Amino acid sequence: MHFNLSEEQAMLQASTARFIKQQYPFEVRQRHVALPEGFDRATWEQFAELGWLSVPISEASGGFGGNAADTMVLMEEMGKGLIATPYVATVLLFGGLIDRGAPAQLKESLLEPLISGQLQGAFAYQERQSRHNMADVKTTATRDGNNYVLSGEKTLVLNGAVADHLVVSARTSGDQFDTSGISLFVIDANNPELQKTAYRLMDGQLVANIGFNNLNVKATQILGEEGDGYDLIKQVANNTILALSAEGLGIMNKLTETTREYTKARKQFGVQISSFQVLQHRMVDMFMACEQTRSLMYRAVCSVGSDDAERSLHALKFMIGRNGRQVGSEAIQLHGGMGITDELSVGHYVKRLMMINTLLGDADYHQQQLAHISLPE
Fold it and tell me: Using CA atoms, how far apart are residues 76 and 244, in angstroms rounded to an integer?
């Protein structure tokens, strides 16, 4: 498959790789993750200056208007650098929902500071019982004059502890699993009536459980039409799955490269272990896993907007989970005991790869979804 980058995409790829090499080594990443907010604000402002925060935002909203390939290029390089920022939560999820669904005045007030690096956002959609089903919503929003009253709880909200604003999915009509009847609300994340419990996941990112106890929200804070939020969620979730998969592919390639270099440097019985045929076979398996995933990535990017888009996306996310597990396991095993130490980057890359597998549906979930989609005629 031939997939050539445009001149702008090549420049974006080069600038991201250069930034990581010069300013974001693994040691810096570790210091940033250990900060109270889980990332460095100064680095986030650099992202804004470089234009990265505007890449997936439409031109009409003041962004770059990048397509799936533009986001893929950026996220793959971020994966290689194991960059720890709320890019997925703030730009792709929150920003994507606001860009596509907010009324003009609300869009302008939120996206301008987001693109300039002054606003943090989050999307609160997951609940304790929902697993990977984004239509499983028990949080309710009841109409009360010109307001809505929100009640319920959202869990594992990415960037929820730091966000200035939240987009919250809530049910305004229908039953628990109905795709219709779900509405999206923008709320102030600093409202003292919110109940927040912040904690870290295995990859170091900060998340929060957020409770809503009869919280009043103005009707003007709704995205799109009442009850039609699920279609908007699916659009943004699909774009984010592509981006996360690109990040995962970047991590897989980095792990393969790091492991290859280690086997060249490590000696046993007086020779480099890279000369052992059995290890060469395992390295080839890692390389092939990366190439298979890249082919599916290109297919998914090229099929955006087509009838085959959903099948390609499910297949890609399944492949990220399956092949990512293979590459991660081989990287740790070939590094020996060092592979699981905090001092070495390998284990941290693998942890992030494991989290990418679980976000927006793991490999098993997407395999099940793929099985329910009939082949095109």
Answer: 9
Of 348, 349, 346, 366, nearest to 358 by C-alpha is 366
**What CATH superfamily is the domain 7-119?**
Acyl-CoA dehydrogenase/oxidase, N-terminal domain (1.10.540.10)
Residues in the chain: 377
Per-residue pLDDT tens, the chain, 377 aa: give them.
Answer: 567 888 999 999 999 999 999 999 999 999 999 999 999 999 999 999 999 999 999 999 999 999 999 999 999 999 999 999 999 999 999 999 999 999 999 999 999 999 999 999 999 999 999 989 999 999 999 999 889 999 999 999 999 999 999 999 999 999 999 999 999 999 999 999 999 999 999 999 999 999 999 999 998 899 999 999 999 999 999 999 999 999 999 999 999 999 999 888 887 787 887 778 888 999 999 999 999 999 999 999 999 999 899 999 999 999 999 999 999 999 999 988 777 888 899 999 999 999 999 999 999 999 999 998 865 55
Residue 19 is encoded by which pair of tokens? 């930034």
- C-alpha span between 355 and 203 (Å, rounded): 7
Q: Where are the beta strands (DSSP E) in the chain?
A: 121-124, 140-144, 147-158, 165-171, 182-188, 195-200, 206-218, 222-223, 267-268, 271-272
Nearest C-alpha neighbor of 125 from the set 80, 174, 161, 89 = 89
Close Cβ partners of 277 (under 8 Å, ≥ 6 residues apart): none
Distance (Å, whole) CA 15 – CA 59: 21
Question: What are the structural domain ranges in the chain?
Answer: 7-119, 122-227, 231-371
CATH classification code of 231-371: 1.20.140.10
Other beta carbons less than 10 A from residue 122's beta carbon? 27
Pairing of β 222-223 and β 182-188: antiparallel
Torsion-angle region of residue 3: left (phi > 0), alpha (psi -120 to 50) or beta?
Answer: beta
Count Cα neighbours of 49 within 13 Å in the Cβ-side half-sphere: 7
Question: What CA–CA distance (Å, rounded) separates 316 from 294?
Answer: 9
What is the CATH number that goes with domain 122-227? 2.40.110.10
The token pair that represents 358 in the structure block: 């679980």
